[in-house]
Amino acid sequence: MKMDMSQYLDVFLEESKEHLESLNQKLLDWEKNSGDIAALNEIFRAAHTLKGMSSTMGFEDLADLTHHMENILSDLKEGLLEVNPQVVDILFQCFDRLQLIIERIESNGSGEMDNSELIMILESIKGGGFQTTAPAADNGQDLKPEEILTTQHSNTTSFDFNQYDMTVMREAASRNFASIYIRLFVDPGCLMKSVRAFMVFKVLEEDSEIIKSFPPASDIEEGKFSEEIELLVITASSIKELEGRLNAISEIKVREIKEINFASLASGSQQETNGDQISSSQDVLKESKEQKGHKVKQTVRVDIERLDILMNLVGELVMHKGRLEQIGASSKIDELNETIEQIDRISGDLQSVVMKVRMVPVEQVFNRFPRMVRDLAKELNKEVDFLIEGKETELDRTVIDEIGDPLVHLLRNAVDHGVESPQERLKRGKPQKATVILRARHEGNNVYIEVEDDGAGINIKRTLEKAVEKGIISAKEAEVISPEEASQILFSPGFSTTENITDVSGRGVGLDVVKTKIESLSGEIFVDSRPGQGTRFRIKLPLTLAIIQALMISVHDEIYAIPLGSVDETTMIKNEDIKMVQNQEVIVLRGNVLPLFRLASLLEIPGEAAANEEEMYVVIVRKGERQIGLVVDTLIGQQEIVIKSLGKILAGIPGIAGAIVAGDGFVRLIIDIATLF
Amino acid sequence: MDNTVNLQSEEGFTHNDGIQVVAFRLGKEEYAVDILHVQEIVRLLSITRVPRSAKHIEGVVNLRGNIVPIINLHKRFSIESAGEEEDKRIVVFQYDDLKAGIIVDEVSEVLALNNNAIEETDKVYSSMSSDFIKGIARVDDRLFLLLDLQKIIE
């Protein structure tokens, strides 16, 4: 009978992707530092879990490929196979194939794919004479205990031995019993972990005594452990016997088994002079406990759609709260106003909780880049050190989903156009290896994401030539243009500085697409560059797109909302403060000359201004690095607004970011400073 | 048994022999749209102008928390608005996943149109606005212009 697995498919897909991601990441780590046993172990573990999951789900091709991969990994782990770039490359190729299969399963449910060519390569690089078809999980059994002992670091256990334990072990030693440390791995897919654990105890208690366990025995019996159990037993059997018996239990695998070097422990604690050793073993304990704490953290997977619905509902609530506040203000009933204050507080809390739930670390997007940059650099014969900073920075889910493509573009750009070849770098007296940094950080209500390289920088001269050639600016304009403005040309539609279209970054899409995307997320993008020293792209994004603070203003009979994120300050000026420079109205604010625009004429607002022509309100807004003054009739006040889209029919109007339903039930429009002028 | 037969014959009528339309007035002309696209008919709501939008977009309204764009066909077809302010309505329709409203001078009735009463436009009608007309239906002495909603949204 075939079990219906379809209900687990979603979970399977999601978890497979996570494992793949970790495979890629750890392999990169390991490639950088092949002594990093922890990374290799992690790779092995992820591959093994993936194999188990896929064969349970009946995706045999997936399981088969993973199985062969696992053989190689296990050989690497045991030192039977030398690390070399070919092996790493083939492993990466396998990961790509796994990804492909998983994507296929996602799109049409079938994971069938012929992987024989990869499997052949895997077989051929496998350690000489080790022609086995047995699962890698059993390979450990073939090893002699001595070998295991030598490959493991001594005494890296989660246990802190107290005086009592020492006495017990000493006693045991005197009767020729061995004290053995065992680390067991329980298959994460295992449904009744407590039962497996019970069987472990039963097997061990035949002729041994368990004197310590981590987590504590009571937790293990209740199944409260992640995937590893550590045990300390006193036994008359040999290590090999014990290991064989334990491995015979299904879904249980011995990770590590070794005899406790009793003498060194005893001397350490008895003399209490070797403080280093004690503290270091305590560190290990702490570290492994933290790791475990991280793993068993309780989480729930929630469909993102449900979160969106929740967010919409909170939005409605905030909107109606605004309406209530208006009613409250005009009715002047104390009781009502007190209640409204309560509702205000609760809806505020609710909003921030929902918002937090929607926040995801940028890590999710960033994690796929190291691999991409590595492959790209290899393809282009460049040497690139790729650094990621601030990957724990959180952003709204909706932004995270959209930000990936623009970043891919910028990173490709950096590696392809920004960074020079190693020879050229040496010639210019730079380190041979280039550095590309992807950085995320919080600042106020914004998140900044930067892509920085230490390459050649933007060639302003060539940029201008190209721009003139393509008719983006005239030759005359090119003569007077400032370097900052010149670099902005990069974002013009139809501009690309590479002559040849490579399949790396010249895919017919320019930086203008990146800019459009960022602006559609209510963000901004800037570039600065120093010739010969590098280029930096900076993306500024709002923390969230759903509910923001806005300044409500009125012009004639119309009311608009300006997102507070773009407002620097408001001020009041007199008619005579306005000067004319080159046919443009300007004002001087604390020594700075700012261009002045009248919202009424920008938006062709019909009607007459209020009578008071002497003085006028100016909202100082920020567009990129520039400050601009906007003349309005009145400032109504600050308000929390729920942004709604104007819909497809009215999408893309420059200067309008969306609409809100105001407290009075009227629709008001939100001004988009980035595209207003 | 009888019931089933009845049902079939009714369905047969609507599908094979014609369509149901909502008929309304713009100025003095009578128009109609397929009732399957009409979501609701509401009294005039206060409309917020959208700057920098196309001329025939009157603005947007708040329809129970949803933002709905309002199309002014009077402007599109250069028709003078006529009739009592009191009779004006917004016909809200849904086409594919787009929702929009049309301001009409009066909603007259819901009609069942026989297919053979509908004529193609190019035979009888040719003007600038014919692009937005799918056909013309003749009922007794009255003429109804059937709107092509897809073109109107574009």
UniProtKB/TrEMBL annotation, chain B:
SUPFAM superfamilies: CheW-like
Gene3D superfamilies: CheA-289, Domain 4, SH3 Domains
One annotated GO biological process: chemotaxis
SMART domains, A to Z: CheW
GO cellular-component term (any): cytosol
Residues of the CheW-like domain: 18-154
Matches recorded under PANTHER family: CHEMOTAXIS PROTEIN CHEW (PTHR22617:SF23), CHEMOTAXIS SENSOR HISTIDINE KINASE-RELATED (PTHR22617)
Name of the protein in question: CheW protein
Organism listed in the record: Syntrophomonas wolfei subsp. wolfei (strain DSM 2245B / Goettingen)
Source species taxonomy: Bacteria, Bacillati, Bacillota, Clostridia, Eubacteriales
